[in-house]
TrEMBL record:
CDD domains: Tryptophan_synthase_alpha (cd04724). HAMAP family: Trp_synth_alpha. It comes from Bostrychia tenella. It catalyses: (1S,2R)-1-C-(indol-3-yl)glycerol 3-phosphate + L-serine = D-glyceraldehyde 3-phosphate + L-tryptophan + H2O. This is Tryptophan synthase alpha chain. Keywords: Amino-acid biosynthesis, Aromatic amino acid biosynthesis, Chloroplast, Lyase, Plastid, Tryptophan biosynthesis. The gene is trpA. GO terms for cellular component: chloroplast; cytosol.
Amino acid sequence: MNSISKILHKKSKVCNCALIPFVTAGYPDISTTIQVLYTLEQEGADIIELGIPYIDALADGPIIQQASKIAVEQGTYVEQVLDILKKVHLKLNTPIIIFSYYNPILVRGIHKFILEIFNLGVKGLVIPDLPIEETDYLILLCAKYNIELILFVAPTSSTNRISDILSKAPGCLYLISNTGVTGIRTNINYRILKLSKYIKSKTNKLIMLGFGISSATQVSQVSKWNIDGIVIGSAFMRILSKNYTQTLNMNTLNEVGNFCKIVKSSIES
């Protein structure tokens, strides 16, 4: 069992599932990102997903797209995200998953990128636009450095497609809770419950659920669905963007921490 899967498995033994906040690196600035990472750890995040900003973030909804755009315009690229990791990886105990589109990794150099994030303690990697047909090399490379490459399963995936993904996935799966992009939604697609049960009947791989989960009520509901980890992104990024400035806002940071504490409590209740 790979490192992220081990964490998810461990959390499932003591509470319903793991809490996995997502934040876009460099938004609203590098310093705030670092403080947000520490705050999320302090308030109960089990794993943190750190997004490398990308101007063509097609899988992301408007909140994260705008955050990525601003971060890129301010000069946050792969190098700056690595600098963030250099500053936190010896102090931060919460495991990090990197969320990146494929192009920044290709531009950096696949092997170079994987080696760099390994040296900075990253435990998982999510690439939303990576075709399943192109995963073989990355799976082998990530396995060499004990980084868990996490593959997506969509609500629209056919049973044959799901079988292909399950056969290739080296560790846990990222189940998309709604069709379309990330973002805040008022309702969770109940087909996901059926789909998660189907996946669990076919494999012992663990499931992270994301895309569209944005409230403590939704988290409480979904955490009872035999899901192993819940990713929340746009709701955290909305807090960071609500009082947007290019400098650290302590009230906003406190609000991020309070929201993290609330959703963590909804999992454990």
